[in-house]
Amino acid sequence: MSSPPSSSSGKALDFEAASKSAVASVESLKFKPQDDIAGGVQVTSFSEIVDEVTLHFQIIRLAKQIYVWIGSNSANLGNLYAAAPTRPNNTVSVTSILGGASDNTGSGIARRLVLKTGLNIIVACNIPKNNPMLEANAEKKLIEKLIALGYSRPKSQSSGPGLSSS
Amino acid sequence: MGGLEQRFPVPYKNLSVEIKGNKTDLVVCRYDDHFLVMATQIGTMGTVLHARKEQGFTVQPTFNVSVIFGKRDEPMLLAITRQLIEHISSSGSSMPLVLSLGLKDHSMDTLKGIVSAVIENRLW
C-alpha cells in the first residue's frame, strides 16, 4: 500500500523548507558587512607630525587580522612582529618574525595594541629605539585611528568579574 | 587636521582577483628596503615567507627563501616565493621580498594563478 502522495511529498517539502531556512540563517550569519570593503581589503595610509617627527602609518585590514606599518623619516619596512590574544585569561602572545628581537620597540607596541583592541595583529615597526615618547605617540595615533575606522571598539570600562553585567 | 600634503612614501596596490573559484585579495607594497606582497583567500595573512638575493661573487645570483611564520611543510609556498624573487631580480631590483600567503588550496593551478596575478600587479 503506497502512502498517499500528498502527505509524503508534504513531509519532503517540509524538510526541504526547513533545511533551506537553516541554510539561509547560516548564510545571513556569515555575511555581516561591517565596512564596505569593495574588492580587496581596506588599506588606510596617513602621516602625522608629532613633536617635529614625521610618522607614517599604514593599516591594512583583512577579515580576521590587521597589518600595521609604522615608519618614521624613512619608508623602510622595519621589524615584523605577530601578536594575538591567547586563551585563557586574555593574555597576549607576541613573536618577532623578521628583524630580530634586539630592538623591543615594535613588540611593545604590538602587545599593547592587542591588549587594547583584542585584534589579531601583525606590526611592522620602523621607529628608532630608545625613544619612548615617540613610541607612545605613535601608539596613541594608531589606536585613535583604529577606533575612528571602526576596527576596534573603545574600551569604556575595564572588564572584571565583579562588575555588573546587564 | 595635521596631515601632510606630500605623497605617502609607500606606494601600494590593492585589488581582488579570482583564482580557481576562490576570491583572492592581493596587496602589493613597495617600501624603501623591501617589497611586501599579501595574497589571501582566508581573511588572514596566513604563512609569511621571506626571500632575498644573495650577492655572491659569481655571475649567477642565488636566492634564499624561507618561511618566517606559519606552515613550514608546504613546498608550494616556497615555490611561489622563489618564482617571485627571481622575477624581482630579473626586473633589476635587489630588494628582498616579504610574502604572505593565506591560501585555501595548494595546487599547481593556484600557484600559477597567484604568481601571474602578482606579476601583473607588481611594483618592481
From TrEMBL, chain A:
One of its GO terms (biological process) is proteasome assembly. GO terms for molecular function: kinase activity. The keyword Transferase applies. It comes from the Eukaryota. The keyword Transferase applies. Keywords: Kinase, Receptor, Transferase. This is Wall-associated receptor kinase-like 15 isoform X2. It comes from Gossypium australe. The lineage of its organism: Eukaryota, Viridiplantae, Streptophyta, Embryophyta, Tracheophyta.
TrEMBL record, chain B:
GO terms for cellular component: proteasome complex. InterPro entries: Proteasome_assmbl_chp_3, Psm_Assembly_Chaperone. It comes from the Eukaryota. Transmembrane segments: none annotated. Coiled coil: none annotated. One of its GO terms (biological process) is proteasome assembly. Keywords: Proteasome. This is Proteasome assembly chaperone 3 isoform X1.
